[in-house]
Amino acid sequence: MVIGEESFVFTEEQIYIRDLIRRVAKEKVALRADQIDSSAEYPQDMFDLLQELGLFTLPFPERYGGTNSMVSACLAIEELGRVCYNTAYLLLLQWVPFGAILAGGSDEQKERFLPDLAAGRIRGAISTTEPQSGSDVAGIRTKATRVAGGYRISGSKAWCTNSHIADFILVAAKTESKGNENSIDLFIVERRSEGLTIGRAEKKMGARGVPTCPLFLDDVFVQDSNVLGQAGTGFKLVMETFNKSRPLIGARGIGLAQGAIDHASEYIKSRVAFGRNVADFQGVRWMVADMAMQTEAARNLVYRAAAMTDAGESGTEFASIASMAKCFATDTAMKVATDAVQLFGASGISDEYPINRYFRDAKVLQIIEGTNQIQRNIIANQILGRVSR
Ligand SMILES: Cc1cc2nc3c(=O)[nH]c(=O)nc-3n(C[C@H](O)[C@H](O)[C@H](O)COP(=O)(O)OP(=O)(O)OC[C@H]3O[C@@H](n4cnc5c(N)ncnc54)[C@H](O)[C@@H]3O)c2cc1C
């Protein structure tokens, strides 16, 4: 297949999923969004709702009860993210460990973890970031030392979302394998492992509904059967997991941008200045037109990347498009949310209105799952290669 041939036309099933989730988001999720943000408490009721809707395997093959479609997954995330960043995040947090185990796990690991993740009986988290290295995954210092029957892991991790409630955490650590010193592997560290401490949750300005904590691993024993994939393949697995989830982060961006447009449009239609509705001023109308135009452009890029995933694309050219989708959609989310706050005037700064929540959450999207500078590096490397002498 030639890169760039895929396009996306939503199927009837995808439209059904979008409309169903749009309705549930409006009727059940939107009402909780502000409260989740202000209390910064994990929204178990939203997790239960997603479980009830049977969404935990949506992007995955039919044999797990899914649709095998990244496009469907993006539609679900977009609709939830339009009203509540945190609820959309809960869904993604269930999908990422599922996707990593599905892609790299042994048959035994798949059997042990996937049915329970699918049913929402267990939860996972993923931890690559450390206090001294986030973007530079290869710079991690957490070490896994070979011992009889498995590994002993020691090190400090930072910014691990969902770790406070996860039953297991996929921890990236450096191993010393023959001929490949310092290769990185992913270990399934069970929550109750001796030597694992989950630290105090970060006080965050955005993404406040799902706690993010540091981890401390002190000689934690992980048996061989909990090494994900084959020894020495962990780094590749992490990168592939991130590549696959990039359209989904893009979908959170367009959902957030659309939600900001929804709120701003409603506000300016009722706000009056100089004897006219604010929505009547041409300067304001053009701002809204730009916000809608940028969001629609991002939407097209995100669904194109999702359609490429569904068509089985991989490799550097796909990685570049996936990075464009993540970067452009989340930069758009930041730009649109900033303009939306502007359209609210002083009310945009007040917590009486939801729009500042969109602004704070948009900033997080530009940083997580590879910052937008790192996405630009991936895109530029694909075009230019490395040209230094
Ligand atoms: C809310 C939230 C949740 C998170 N959840 C998780 C999680 O569940 N698991 C997990 O492992 N991590 C998680 N993270 C961490 C996140 O992945 C990292 O913050 C991110 O990868 C950036 O790393 P850093 O913060 O160490 O920034 P650094 O890598 O220190 O970067 C600092 C700045 O320098 C820029 N920069 C760095 N290198 C380059 C370069 N080569 N070229 C150009 N610019 C560069 C960066 O883009 C950034 O602007 C989370 C972060 C947040 C905010």
How would you portray this structure in words?
By secondary structure, the chain is of the alpha+beta class. It has three domains: 12-119, Butyryl-Coa Dehydrogenase, subunit A, domain 1 (Orthogonal Bundle); 124-231, Butyryl-CoA Dehydrogenase, subunit A, domain 2, CATH 2.40.110.10; 235-384, Up-down Bundle (Butyryl-CoA Dehydrogenase, subunit A, domain 3), CATH 1.20.140.10. Helix content is 53%, strand content 16%. The protein has ten helices and ten strands. The chain has helices at 12-39, 44-52, 70-83, 85-104, 107-119, 234-270, 282-310, 315-344, 355-367, 372-384, and strands spanning 124-127, 143-147, 150-161, 168-177, 180-190, 196-198, 212-223, 227-228, 272-273, 276-277. The strands form two sheets. Strands 1, 2, 3, 4, 5, 6, 7 and 8 form an eight-stranded mixed sheet that branches. Strands 9-10 form a two-stranded antiparallel sheet. Strand 2 (143-147) and strand 3 form a beta hairpin. Helix 6 runs antiparallel to helix 9 (355-367) and helix 8 (315-344) runs antiparallel to helix 10. The longest helix is centred in the middle third of the chain and has 37 residues, at 234-270. The chain is globular and about 80 Å long. The two termini are 34 Å apart. The model has no long low-confidence stretch (mean pLDDT 94). The site of flavin-adenine dinucleotide has 20 residues, from strand 1, strand 3, helix 9 and helix 10.
